[in-house]
Specification:
CATH topology of the largest domain: Four Helix Bundle (Hemerythrin (Met), subunit A)
Distance between the termini: 25 Å
InterPro entries: GntR_C (IPR011711), TF_FadR/GntR_C (IPR008920), Tscrpt_reg_HTH_GntR (IPR000524), WH-like_DNA-bd_sf (IPR036388), WH_DNA-bd_sf (IPR036390)
Organism: Dictyobacter halimunensis
CATH architecture of the largest domain: Up-down Bundle
Order of helices and strands: HEHHEEHHHHHHHHH
Keywords: DNA-binding, Transcription, Transcription regulation
Number of strands: 3
Number of domains: 2
Protein name: GntR family transcriptional regulator
Helix content: over 70%
Low-confidence stretches: none
């Protein structure tokens, strides 16, 4: 496993599990750990300079979240999601997100509105970087901020967990995304935000649905088996 983790320095031992969890998760969602990358408990503990116990506990949480899975009886690996799983999770969020947007128009505080706006501004800042992990993270931050403003923690966590896994899947097909010339979705996020600011729940829901449909259109090969197979074949040709 490549060296990607820095040793943890914490004032109390009880924080090591959480710190190890965040460090490993950051490595996965930032693309430092490749799709299918082995995660060996003792190697991670050595890199973090901690005992194996907090690492074992952190890996158990990540397995529960669906980001990693067991690897041939020894350790774990970054989970290899299927196209069908991607489509199913995307569809689940399509149902939940308009509901959260509607709630946000009714309950968002000034502080929560600022957090949504900051997420959009951050999305704009990273849009030109071409850094796919950062662009995807900015999108997750927007949807998390909207969920928090909606005041429904379980549904917000549901949406964010699904987005983490769908983003992990997209990271594994970065070349296809490059070929599709996927652009960040900041303009659509901003339209949703403006509707929330105006407490216009009908407009906010309509824009949230439009946003999901627009993402589906941009990512159409991932939702159509024939298109997807053609893009994968082209990706393999480009590797040669």
């Amino acid at each position: 496993m490549p060296k990607f983790l820095e040793p943890l320095v914490l004032p109390r031992a009880s924080g090591y599990r959480e710190a190890a969890y965040h460090a490993i998760k950051e490595g996965i969602l930032s693309g430092y750990l490749a799709y299918g990358q082995p995660l060996i408990e003792e190697e991670i503990a050595s890199q973090l300079n901690v005992s194996r116990t907090p690492v074992r506990e952190a890996l158990a949480i990540l397995q529960h979240e669906g980001l990693i899975s067991p690897r041939n009886g020894r350790g774990f690996h970054v989970r290899q999601l299927t196209r069908e799983e991607f489509v199913t999770m995307f569809a689940a969020n399509e149902v939940v997100e308009p509901y959260l947007v509607r709630l946000a128009t009714l309950t968002a505080t000034d502080m929560q509105l600022r957090a949504i706006q900051e997420a959009i501004e951050h999305g704009k800042a990273v849009a030109e970087s071409g850094d796919l992990p950062r662009i995807l993270r900015a999108g997750r931050d927007f949807h998390r901020a909207v969920g928090i403003a909606a005041g429904n923690a379980p549904l917000t966590q549901f949406v964010v967990n699904n987005e983490e896994r769908t983003d992990l899947y997209l990271l594994s097909h970065e070349k296809i995304l490059t070929m599709l010339k996927i652009v960040p979705f900041n303009q659509e996020h901003e339209m949703i935000f403006n509707a929330i600011m105006q407490h216009d729940s009908e407009a906010a829901v309509r824009l949230a649905i439009y946003h999901s449909q627009a993402v589906r259109e941009r990512l159409s090969p991932f939702f159509n088996v024939d298109e997807f197979q053609k893009m994968v074949a082209l990706q393999e040709v480009l590797k040669e």
